[in-house]
């Protein structure tokens, strides 16, 4: 291990796993991310534990499943009692810096109802030192633009309209009205370089967040035409959106509700009305935004090289969640499909990397990031954490005897101000949830108050045919429902459960090895 160790945690937004050259997207030009893949380890079966942004980042930064942290939707508060990566890093002598955002709504018991943070989607999680904040409401970025001399329009977000008076909002290869030198990705990169240049020789931790490739799906020149629609893979979906909607009530709700306006500034109409040509163009723009981030990361990596800090720095590259991109006729991050939950993960440790350039196929989750970073720095994850360190994977394929037998993730679809499924589905707030257990063979989706789903991934990898009601699959559905229940029981909140009172006084029991690794259902 090097004498000093830095950590660069790169968290992009809405980047799905299969838009990486290492995962088969060879049309993408991402030389700096490909460098990370060559010098680090790429994880091919990695998922976020929740969507959308707020719940996903809560799991990433607390190491807790949604069922335990309960920040179940954007705008839902995160309980102040929960530990997080920022606070843990302070305990081992790091001053954790944050660029970007965490979409965290504060615990109302720690402040007053007039706190302006309750008027936004979220703010910064306690424990981190913001050094380039996007929140609240992107004020940091828009203020930077004004300071740079850019004349902001009356509606600030109109900078993401397509260029030209005759432009029609929607999927387009036209550039946005802001130049690349003043994009939000450029803003985050400048903030990162400013921070790094001020650190000198002191060890550092930096959460470097990027807003892209999150919508609006419009890119600055020259990234708007870097890829053509013809290069993009076609969407994976049934012939009509109505056929998709017939598969499940939750799907029907989103297919009828999701509009284009959340993805293209100024656009109208339903997302399910996008034709294949528009989907391909949207994907080309999405890819262009990815290459812009890659170029920005090249500037940061270049500084690490020039200052001989590359070998002293652990780099973790991941996303908060994925993006449907028109698959199953959906846009955004909703429901239970892989496109919303499977995300990239690349880890390059400081110093030598035994498995540099390799691919790891074991099951990993975003709750593992916090324990991994703490283990790499000589710290220890809190007892309550649901994740486990991935450091063993960096030297041993498969991660050893404690590897997961399956993936687990959750989604809560209760009403928020921009989405209201409760009345449509005739459910109460606390019935609007699902959890997924998925392995290499099958995927089981359990709902609190809606019919379950079960897919055979060998014959139906894109999850079109629900087998949950077929008699010949009844035993398998039972087994996977039991796996889901067992998993939830083993990961119930456990902050204090290893303490007990005795005649000799308080006793702290040693935590056992992860129970999932020895599940009697793991072999089913």
Core attributes:
five-stranded mixed beta sheet; alpha/beta; 524 residues; 25% helix; 13 helices; eight-stranded mixed beta sheet
**How many domains, in number, for the residues?**
1
User: Number of helix segments?
Assistant: 13
Compute the separation of the termini in Å.
Answer: 40 Å
How many DSSP-defined strands? Answer: 15
By CATH, the superfamily comes out as Alkaline Phosphatase, subunit A
Q: Using the coordinates above, name the CATH class.
A: Alpha Beta
What is the name of the CATH topology? Alkaline Phosphatase, subunit A
Residue share in helix:
25-40%
The parts where pLDDT drops under 50 for at least 5 residues are: 515-524
Radius of gyration over C-alpha positions, nearest whole angstrom: 22 Å
Keywords: Hydrolase, Metal-binding
GO molecular function, one term: metal ion binding
Pfam families: Sulfatase
Protein name: Sulfatase
């Amino acid at each position: 291990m090097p004498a000093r160790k830095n950590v660069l945690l790169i968290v992009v937004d809405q980047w799905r796993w299969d838009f990486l050259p290492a995962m088969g997207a060879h049309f993408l030009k991402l030389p700096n991310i490909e460098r990370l893949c060559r010098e680090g380890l790429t994880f091919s079966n990695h998922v976020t534990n929740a969507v959308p942004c707020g719940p996903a980042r809560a799991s990433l930064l607390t190491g807790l499943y949604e069922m335990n942290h309960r920040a179940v939707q954007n705008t839902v508060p995160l309980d102040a009692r929960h530990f997080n990566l920022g606070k843990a890093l302070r305990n081992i002598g790091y001053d954790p810096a944050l660029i970007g955002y965490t979409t965290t709504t504060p615990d109302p018991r720690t402040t007053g109802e007039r706190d302006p943070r309750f008027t936004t989607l979220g703010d910064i999680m306690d424990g981190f030192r913001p050094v380039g904040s996007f929140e609240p409401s992107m004020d940091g970025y828009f203020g930077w633009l004004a300071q740079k001399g850019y004349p902001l329009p009356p509606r600030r977000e109109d900078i993401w309209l397509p260029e030209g008076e005759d432009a029609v909002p929607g999927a387009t290869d036209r550039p946005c009205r802001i130049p690349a030198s003043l994009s939000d990705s450029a803003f985050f990169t400048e903030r990162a370089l400013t921070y790094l240049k001020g650190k000198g020789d002191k060890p550092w931790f930096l959460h470097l967040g990027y807003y892209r490739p999150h919508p609006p799906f419009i890119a600055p020149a020259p990234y708007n035409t870097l890829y053509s629609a013809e290069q993009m893979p076609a969407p994976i979906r049934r012939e009509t959106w109505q056929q998709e909607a017939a598969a499940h009530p939750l799907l029907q709700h989103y297919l009828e509700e999701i509009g284009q306006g959340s993805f293209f500034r100024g656009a109208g109409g339903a997302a399910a009305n996008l034709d294949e040509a528009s989907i391909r163009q949207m994907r080309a723009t999405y890819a262009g935004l990815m290459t812009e981030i890659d170029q920005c990361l090249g500037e940061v990596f270049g500084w690490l090289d020039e200052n001989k800090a590359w070998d002293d720095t652990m780099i973790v590259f991941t996303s908060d969640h994925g993006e449907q991109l028109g698959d199953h006729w959906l846009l955004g991050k909703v429901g239970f499909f892989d496109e919303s939950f499977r995300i990239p993960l690349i880890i390059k440790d400081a110093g030598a990397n035994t498995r540099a350039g390799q691919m790891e196929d074991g099951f990993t989750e975003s709750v593992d990031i916090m324990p991994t970073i703490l283990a790499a720095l000589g710290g220890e994850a809190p007892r309550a954490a649901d994740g486990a360190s991935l450091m063993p994977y960096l030297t041993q394929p498969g991660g050893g005897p404690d590897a997961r037998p399956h993936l687990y993730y959750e989604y809560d679809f209760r009403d928020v101000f921009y989405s209201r499924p409760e009345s449509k589905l005739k459910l109460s707030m606390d019935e609007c949830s699902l959890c997924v257990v998925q392995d290499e063979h099958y995927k089981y989706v359990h709902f609190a108050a809606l019919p379950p789903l079960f897919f055979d991934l060998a014959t139906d990898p894109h999850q079109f045919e629900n087998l949950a009601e077929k008699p010949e699959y009844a035993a398998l559905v039972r087994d996977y429902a039991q796996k889901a229940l067992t998993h939830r029981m083993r990961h119930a909140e456990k902050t204090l459960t290893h303490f007990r009172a005795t005649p000799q006084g308080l006793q702290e029991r040693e935590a056992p090895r992860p129970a999932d690794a020895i599940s009697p259902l793991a072999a089913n």
